[in-house]
Amino acid sequence: MQAARTLRGTFSLRHKHSNERKRHNRPKKVVPTLQNVELTISHIGHRGDGCADYEGRTIFVPFTAPGDHIRADVTGDRGALIEMLEPSKDRRQAPCPHYRVCGGCSLQHLTQDYYQSWQLKQFHETLKKHSVSAEIIQPLFTVEENTRRRATLSALKRRGEITLGYLAPKSHDIVDVTACLVLDPALEALLPALRILMGDLLANGDKAKISMTKVENGVDINIEGFERELTAEERGKVADWAQGANVCRVTSDGEILAQHRAPYLTIAKENIEIPPGAFLQATQMSQEKLQTLVSEALADTKGPVADLYAGCGTFTLALAHDRPIHAFEGDGHCVKALINTAHHAKGLKPVEVSKRDLADRPLMPAELKKFAGVILDPPRNGAAPQIQQITESSVPLIVYASCNPTTFARDAAQLIEASYTLKTLTPVDQFLYSAHLECVGVFERA
Question: Model pTM?
Answer without folding.
Answer: 0.89
